[in-house]
Specification:
The structure is a homodimer of 327-residue chains. Chain A is an alpha/beta fold and 327 residues long. Chain A is built from 9 helices and 15 strands. Chain A folds into 2 domains: 6-113 and 304-325, 2-Layer Sandwich (ornithine cyclodeaminase, domain 1); 124-302, NAD(P)-binding Rossmann-like Domain (Rossmann fold, 3-Layer(aba) Sandwich), CATH 3.40.50. In chain A, strands 9-8-7-10-11-14-12-13 form an 8-stranded parallel beta sheet. In chain A, strands 2-3-4-5-6-1-15 form a 7-stranded mixed beta sheet. In chain A, strand 8 (161-165), helix 5 (169-183) and strand 9 form a beta-alpha-beta unit.
Chain lengths: 327, 327
Amino acid sequence: MAQASLLYLSRDDVERAGPAMAEIIEAVEKGFFELGHGRVEMPPKPGIHPGQGGDNFIHAMPAYIPAMEAAGVKWVSGYPGNPARGLPYIGGLLILNDPETGLPLSVMDCTWITAKRTAAASAISARHLARPESATIGILACGVQGVSNLDAMSVLFPLKAVFAFDTRPEQARALAGHAEADLGLEATVVDDPRDAVAGCDIVVTSGPILKAPHETIRAGWMDPGAFASLVDFDSYWSRDALRQADKWTTDHAGQYAYYRDVAGYFRDCPPVDADLGELVAGRKPGRETPEQRTFAANLGLAMDDMAVAPLIYRRARAMGIGTELPV
Amino acid sequence: MAQASLLYLSRDDVERAGPAMAEIIEAVEKGFFELGHGRVEMPPKPGIHPGQGGDNFIHAMPAYIPAMEAAGVKWVSGYPGNPARGLPYIGGLLILNDPETGLPLSVMDCTWITAKRTAAASAISARHLARPESATIGILACGVQGVSNLDAMSVLFPLKAVFAFDTRPEQARALAGHAEADLGLEATVVDDPRDAVAGCDIVVTSGPILKAPHETIRAGWMDPGAFASLVDFDSYWSRDALRQADKWTTDHAGQYAYYRDVAGYFRDCPPVDADLGELVAGRKPGRETPEQRTFAANLGLAMDDMAVAPLIYRRARAMGIGTELPV
């Protein structure tokens, strides 16, 4: 038996081979089901921090999901100074391994997968925590994650209207255009962030993750019965607003404790009621009344990536996409 | 500024572009100098363990050496059952990043670098712990690491004779042939492992790493004044033989403590007198008398890999070796 060949997938290749959001959500949900049953190996993610600024990182995110025959690592960088140089903030590669032999099957750009799987996890949280009839959504910060979170929510909910806020109005207008043209939604660009929170069934805050939250959203803005996904951790939320939470969840209780107790995020946030694996595995209840204000503060897990990577690899193989590399 | 392109280097490419052992030793020694001064970022290496056997691993080994502008990760697998299937025991890829932007510069097969940098670290330990006039060397287990350790020692010491032992005699004969033809040494294949220890100035044990040591080497075999490099950790050595150590070193005291206290290797081994960074940085003394029996139990560090990877990358670029990938 010779060693399997190695398939390289560029950013374009991944986009072309990538499955639709519905399929991504299904794969990530399966991963959370396994995680909730304690059947995923996912060690803490170590990293290095080159440069002077202190905010640069390159993280290794390894995971193994036996039931999905998925094993590998994402090696992902975030350099806040890159966009000013015409380079992406997030970059990196994912290596997918054959769990049978340990050898690499594929190396792929990880930008697309990072955007999509984060949104899929938001939507899976919403499936358990938002009201099923949720029709209005507010997006605060309309970059890559704002758009992909809107896309993912539109797969699972009968959305009718989106309210888009961004400190750069052109970003909000771009998201609104996408929402109207591609999702058939009624889209409103709002100048006041409150208008993307009050009256919304689902709220997504998707700005940059900050150690010192700007706390734009105040107590009383969020409606009873609404759900919020905090892609930016707690950056957008005042502590008083967060104290109105009736249910506070994350995607991994252990890693959340690290972010809170060691890394210094989520100060004075509510205690964790459940993690997403527990919700998906049915071990803890999601929303319990139509009036609850519910929150998901997901961190992004190596498991998310590894649940999606085999789909991309298999589709690329079937479609003949990618560069075959000598091993 | 556009994103830099990405260079893929196969196993063959790395071998062709790889620098000579003398240059590898110099690079790894520079890395240890930086490590000894606390100027290397090297978090613990997490891993996943697919399969039923329990001995399979895939480890993420990230490191950043600012002074060498070297940042990246090695994602390396070890599957004991692979050779029986015609597949390599060790496999995997190394991603080298640009520390300025965080983006990947190169993806390269990590087999060659793993073999060479391990031997280079042995030789650097020997430079501080073996007698400079060391002329005889014993190799116990003559696989990839036996050969590369012999090569590395021959760069730094005036070797005249090698004694080769292996439970598979054809491996010992192959190493002996290489030693005579390529290194000009007098080579003897020995049937008794004692003959590859007694009378030798340098001893290298390079068999498989075992949690339950076979303890072949007994007390009294190793000469006073000799140095031993334990590439197989403590697998080859009886506890009585190890108690004759006058100096016991490793390449990283922190990671050694983890292997000993958590993973269960190095039971009843002597306390660590120094690590290799301390020796190279001149913070602790190496050999102090001609009579001391000295030991290096090196673990293999992500720093070793990252010190060598930029050399390979730069040489490959200069030689036009490798496959240019779209990002």
